[in-house]
Amino acid sequence: MEKEEHMKISVIIGHPYSKSFNAALAEKTTETLKKRGHEVFFHDLYRENFNPVLSPEELAGQDGGDELVRIHRKEIKEADGIVLIHPEWWGQPPAVLKGWVDRVLVPGTAYETTMTENGSVTKGLLKAETVILFATSNTPAEREEGVLGDPLLHIWRDCTFSFCSKAVFDRIMFRVIETSTAGERKQWLEDAAGMLEKYF
Amino acid sequence: MEKEEHMKISVIIGHPYSKSFNAALAEKTTETLKKRGHEVFFHDLYRENFNPVLSPEELAGQDGGDELVRIHRKEIKEADGIVLIHPEWWGQPPAVLKGWVDRVLVPGTAYETTMTENGSVTKGLLKAETVILFATSNTPAEREEGVLGDPLLHIWRDCTFSFCSKAVFDRIMFRVIETSTAGERKQWLEDAAGMLEKYF
């Protein structure tokens, strides 16, 4: 499956702690991708103080004047692949990452909508061929996939990237993080690298 | 179903526009609840500049020093009922409302966790008996409940309030908002009032 070409990969992490296992995943991701010759657009949303609140002007389709958001929009349009890294909170990404979706994946960047007599028709604009999710969770798999309906799969694959790209979606859920051992976490970093090497 | 007693109801809205249909729903909600003699804890998260980003200190269980968050936590513990009003963006609430969950529904306020040999055991702390969701959407019901797996139901009922309360969950999805007529929206406000009168 090894691909030879140089790719641009967006790596986006949203976690409050700079020394979290999420941060270790981000470091391993960047290192693995660079070793394979790819260009990495790296963003730690907490460290860069990303503001997740979509403004009224932005909702109206205007440029809100946030230079950081402009950079994110430019990069995500160019990305051949996207890697998202976050803890699962309430079956969802942290607000800072939800706001990245709200503010960055806007019409003109991620999709375009044409109004017809029968309602709106949407076309995805992202060229990324692969989206990878690395999420940490404290919810056991049985409960997550049963009672909760595997919310992150729906949120990221069906509600987000199916809407604005033709990308293949794959992921690893690292669980249960709170009771994991150092040995397990070490192996998990290798598992993450293995998935990245499969696609990029 | 009419209940005589005085209740405390938290009403939380997250929408960028102050003249949106969401804002009209919030106004109708407050008016209906007050007319029935209830006390309303009203918060328009955009208007009050609620910061949705959970800080590292807060994740560690410390008080982050945000007075507004303290008020939210105090009120949500006291609330007999909760009404959430928001547009559906990417199958989810806007980031500002996701961050309200992240920062307000914290351990000690919304739930408590006890570690045991077999992992953690959680007990909900919210006393609210009813949670009502009014969400506006541009996704047709077939697609939402089919392809997307009805994400808002899972997010709010299963992932959030089942975890921290014993509340009954009910909702109205107002759709398709972008092609709705003034007459439909007027009726929708009455539908919202009808649901509130049923529970509160």
Word description of this protein:
Chain A is α/β, with parallel strands linked by helices. The first copy, chain A, is about 40% helix and about 25% strand. The first copy, chain A, has 7 helices and 7 strands; from the N terminus they run E-H-E-H-H-E-H-E-E-E-H-H-E-H. In chain A, the strands form 2 sheets. In chain A, strands 2-1-3-6-7 form a 5-stranded parallel β-sheet, with helices on both faces. In chain A, strands 4-5 form a two-stranded antiparallel ribbon. The longest helix of chain A is centred in the C-terminal third of the chain and has 18 residues, at about 180-200. The N and C termini of chain A lie close together (about 10 Å). The model of chain A has no long low-confidence stretch (mean pLDDT about 95). The interface between A and B is large, with 41 and 41 residues.
In a nutshell, what does this entry contain?
The structure is a homodimer of 200-residue chains. With 200 residues, the first copy, chain A, is an alpha/beta fold. Chain A has 7 helices and 7 strands, in the order E-H-E-H-H-E-H-E-E-E-H-H-E-H.
Instruction: Please state the CA-atom Rg of chain A, rounded to the nearest Å.
Output: 17 Å
N- to C-terminal separation of chain A? 9 Å
Most extensive interface between two protein chains, with residue counts: A-B, 41 and 41 residues
Beta-strand residue percentage of chain A: 15-25%
Helix content of chain A: 25-40%
Largest sheet of chain A: 5 strands, parallel
Q: What would you call the structural class of chain A? A: alpha/beta
Number of helices of chain A: 7
Q: Please list the strands of the largest sheet of chain A in the order they lie side by side.
A: 2-1-3-6-7
* Record field, number of beta strands of chain A: 7
Extract low-pLDDT stretches of chain A: none
Order of helices and strands of chain A: EHEHHEHEEEHHEH
What quaternary form is this? homodimer
What is the average per-residue confidence, as pLDDT of chain A, rounded to a whole number?
95
* Envelope shape of chain A: globular
